[in-house]
Amino acid sequence: MARRRLSEAIRWQIIGMHATGASFKAIGRQLGYHYTVISRLVRKHRQTGAVKDRPQSGRPRVTSEREDRAFLRIIRREPFSTSTVLKRAWLPNRHLSTRTVRNRLKAAGMAARRVVKRPRLTDDHKRRRLAWCLARQRWNLRTWRRIHWSDESRFLLHVTDGRLRVWRHRNTAYTPRNIRQTVPFGGGSVMVWGCISHDCKLDLVTVRGNLTGDQYMRHVLEPVVVTHFDNHPLATRPVYMNDNARPHRSRAVVDYLHNNAVTTLPWPAMSLLIRWSMFGTSWGVVYKLCSLLCRHYVNWRQLCIVSGCK
After folding, report:
1. Residues 101 and 212 both lie in one domain
2. pTM of the predicted model, to two decimals?
3. Are the CB atoms for 193 and 150 separated by under 8 Å?
4. Where do the record's region annotations for Disordered lie (predicted)?
């Protein structure tokens, strides 16, 4: 990071503070500079009687400190802008290069990084989230361990997320071994349901096509969830968590869970992050497994058999 340059007003302030008897370290702590910076400035003033820098070789900066501060205010308002857009918004009447913009960003400790995407929350969503957390803030560890967390995720046979890189020589982009072949719609997909808790994990269940309430009952709840819950006494039965997806909240599903004495955990709207914190690592393992197996298997029937999904 570039060194901060002392303005002329700050330099004269340092000289005045030293003249009143303040030490170099005391001045540095008050103004936010190292004491060696203060000592060099005082020594130069004693020798030359001036505080300005001597003429230096090299091209001077094309922007002043005030203009740089204005640039930082712009980037705080528009953090998603490109360097070209920032250049036009910063000093439209000056001839600046995008390299100058990137240099100022680097000097401020900023770099272009991947954007984190999260669901958009309204004030009502935030209030419901807070109310959900406050109602359970005094739950003990035994209560949380009763929760069985469920989730679904869709897997593609051929994943093309756009982040793949290849090591190759120049002008060999179209060499067959350097080309990643793609297929429409990822070559097919399957919905995978999973459920985990503190001390167990249920079988993964695959559902072809879109998940409906009827499929949810026939393929997930009846053969897996209810069967597992029936193995527990009513007094110590687990609590089942599923999100607010339409198949989970259909009248038939709600009645089915109630008739089979399956207690569910109420879930606030747009609360994907809480559930993803439970399943992020689990789904990551499955994604990695699929990416490895898809190199050798060409359809989902083979892949589901090898990966252990029902």
Report:
1. no
2. 0.60
3. yes
4. 46-65
